[in-house]
Amino acid sequence: MNEAHILKIAGELKIQPRQVLSTAKLFAEGATVPFIARYRKEATGELDEVAITTIRERMIGLADLDSRRETILKSLTERNLLTDQLQADIAAADSVTRLEDIYLPFRPKRRTRAMIAKEQGLEPLADLLFQAQSTADPRAEAATFVSAEKGVADAAAALAGARDILAERVSDDAKARAKLRELYWNEGVVKSKVMSDKQEAGAKFKDYFDWSEPAGRIPSHRLLAIRRGETEGFLMMRISVEEMSALALLEPLFVTGQGPAAEQIRLAVQDSFKRLLGPAIEVELRMETKKRADTEAIRVFADNLRELLLASPLGSKNMLAIDPGFRTGCKIVCLDRQGKLLHNDVIYPTASSAGEIREAAAALLSMIKKYQIEAIAIGNGTAGRETEAFVKALKLTLPIVMVNESGASIYSASEVAREEFPTQDLTVRGAVSIGRRLMDPLAELVKLDPKSIGVGQYQHDVEQGALKRSLDDVVISCVNGVGVELNTASKQLMAYVSGLGPALAANLVSYRNENGPFKSRAELKKVPRLGEKAFEQAAGFLRIRDGGHPLDSSAVHPERYELVDRMAKDLNCSVSDLLRDAGLRQKIQLPKYVTEAVGLPTLTDILGELAKPGRDPRQKFEVFSFQSGVEKMEDLKPGMKLPGIVTNVTAFGAFVDIGVHQDGLVHVSQLSDRFIKDPSEVVKVSQKVTVTVTEVDLPRKRIALSMKAAPVIGASSTGPRTSPSAPRPAGGGFNRPAQPAKPAAVDWFTAAMSKNKK
Fold first, then answer.
1. pTM of the full structure
2. Which of 56, 295, 401, 737 has the largest CB neighbor count within 10 A?
3. Domain boundary among 465, 495, 527
4. Cα-only R_g, the chain
5. Calpha distance 239→598 (Å, rounded)
């Protein structure tokens, strides 16, 4: 372990070096973030997943910095350019930016104007002008360097070459770069202009046709929107500072005298800023502002994804799922409590014919009775609200839930879906996904690429490698935080379990298929290629209902079974008795079981698991319904108060599904009566909210909403309304125990027939 890295990270995170060292050692041994956070609390001093992940990322970053440092030292050594001072400066560099600034004067360059001037023998003239700024006569000195043979036609040409050399020195000066970089951050302005003759084609970027904003404060979503407009050829973006401010900063660093020679230095500084240093720092700032915008956008995406993955599950129910449609009808699937497909059919509840409507109702009621359906899931896409109205009119006594179908079509065409349902078409697979998503959102959503779920902010514009790492971390955290039922989980879900991965997950499923359900966690060791390390990392996160050991269904790690057995023995009872009897658990004296390896944090976790073995950390499922009679944008009127579900949270506000097939935007300024900067302070994805319609723009399909106590109706939200491209999620809820279906008399048919006759 690099001691300097350990100390640096400890200082940055304001924790003890031993915590960083222990965490780094666990990573070196192959431990995962969830395992370290859950089962090695004593070693890390109870660091959470965020801190542990930060340590991992900083260790990687510092290792990369050292690697670059070694590459630079090797290059300088090979070219005989390394001096003791230069080596010391390189060793002291604590960032990539500082390291590259030091190396810049020595980096091999393409042929530059300064190089040509040096080849013409003008470097002594540049040195003379710089050193004798108050005494040298530039023209007289330059005249001595005129040479037709070397291509220096006259004194003016000699002075121009000398200035080229000086301009490059200014550009390569580490102090000058640092000061100008700071100026750009403090006073730089991001400016965007529309490209000539692109106003009409680039209308979606019209907010940025003439835009300016401080570079150090521009929000992530605006910068990414401008950059997208630039990439698509509609906008031109610059980051600039006032030339006078820049020169006032740079000139004192190099202009140290007065007179004609000093004026030559001043001209060289001006040329350097315009031609070399200014553009270089602008490029650097473009990259750094993009990196910061990416970081913020990825954070928003990760937070939204976590909320979506941890949405409340309805649980194992016999499910009837509907993928709605008008012309092609509604695809129906019936699933058992494990999500297995039992039956599929097509009905036409939105047909114009009363006969077809009656047939659809009869078919639905028949399936509900035959498959003992306990809940109905309806996709929230096209014809979703109309289908919901049809089903609710049947007056059933079971929950009817609108389900976010975002990504279901992508799943239906995926290799995962084809492998699971090779003989079924896309619509059947999509309906199955809708039903399973209601049962357990996490188990179903892990089968999708997170980017297709639609809860990001400019996710296609950010650095894709960083985005994937962050989203993978979120999925892994959620899967392991909830735990996985070993005997029913898909291999896609188990692939995210600590210590497994796709190959071992596939082996687990193959072993389960060949040998039947796992009877104990100990049986995991019989799975091909699942060694001791993988068992250690994974076992605590895999649950076995009614397993060989009473704790197999809990989050207690098998390595602590012996400890719990000893607790039970000390109380003259069994482990099962401890799980059932709170009075017995209260008698456990935790300090008695503290050892060097097991401290109070782990013992407290164990006691919590004994009270609620394998508890699901997700919230209870709650009932939710959209406003009856409000099914399309034309039904909306300013001033309406409506229930909704937050589908996406961005830096500029929150998108809310109010059941009209188009999400409305609650701008950040309309989220609360108090001032807020971060929308996530107020709302989360999947949260149920009440909103007020403030504006409806039918031609542009925009809905402005407010969550303020007394919103201003008809007033547009402030700021550019840039919306990330995202499908419209929705959701629902139910917290009553499901009851057997009891089809009632369907008096709705009379109304349908009457409407049809009219």
1. 0.84
2. 401
3. 465
4. 33
5. 55
